[in-house]
Amino acid sequence: MAGTARETHVVLGAGPAGSTLAGELARRGHAVRLVARSAPVAGTPEGVVFHPGDVGSAEGARAAIAGAAVVYHCVNVAYHLQVEAMPGIQDAVLAAAEAEGARLVVLDTVYPYGPTGGEVMTEDTPWRATGAKGRMRAALDEKYLAAHREGRVRVALGRSADFVGPGVLNSTLGGAVFPGALTGTEVIGLGDIDLPHSYTDIRAVAAGLATLGEHPEGDGRVWHLPTAPARTTREVFRLIEERVGRPLDISVKTEPRPFGPFDQVFMDAYAELFYQHTEAQVMDSTAFQDAFGVKPFALEDTLDATLDWYRAFLASRG
């Protein structure tokens, strides 16, 4: 890139996905602006410029992405507010990207598929969500893809399974598992832990979204971000036991009740998605891997990195 002006890549949202993505883009040599209402808890990644901003309004979104060539939408809100808030954020971000002439890469979920009866989810799986959040996410995705078809904004959607990895706290394989594994206290499992369940390493989420940002030929469709082959949650727990050198004190919650970092408000909002723990959740990312040559992290590598991060995190909290 010597002697040429670098295009600006703007990441919206400074949670684990947005922060990890911003760092990944900077390592790839891009000029990166990270936009959120507050800076990342772990600090702004090296080589990234933090810009405080709120993309919930048209004016805020325009200010956030001014000068961007590629925008990555990783903004999320509290679970119980998503149905109300996410469509307005989408409108603001889409309008700003269109006005700026920027490409848009959206971090997405598997919620639009709804209950699948345990069938493997590919990009061709029908969208059959019945709950409010799944229907909302499906409506957002339809609007994103329509904007692309209409030539308003070039859009690519990257879907992830449940997050796991360094910096991930609010996941079913996060703050309710690793601290207990390391300290010998309670570890929570949800539903039937003998069902296969896909987990996507947050670093693979970042690598996948960055790759979509660098490859316009991926625009106009949904992609499944690189995800390791599904294991049962019990198998995941056994792998953690091997690494910490002790049996886990596993408590299985068969109903959506508060636990760990998830309070009653969250679990009331999550209840409609609890089917994800009573049927197999297997996401296949072969299409992305074949198209772009980006492989998922092996689950063993993910667990090693995650445990290392949690050891440091717990030590920092005394």
Automatic annotation (TrEMBL):
Pfam families documented for this protein: Epimerase
Superkingdom classification of source: Bacteria
InterPro entries in UniProt: Epimerase_deHydtase, NAD(P)-bd_dom_sf, NAD(P)-dependent_oxidoreduct
Coiled coil residues, start to end: none
Domain NAD-dependent epimerase/dehydratase stretches: 11-218
The name this protein goes by in its record: NAD(P)H-binding protein
Source organism phylogeny: Bacteria, Bacillati, Actinomycetota, Actinomycetes, Kitasatosporales
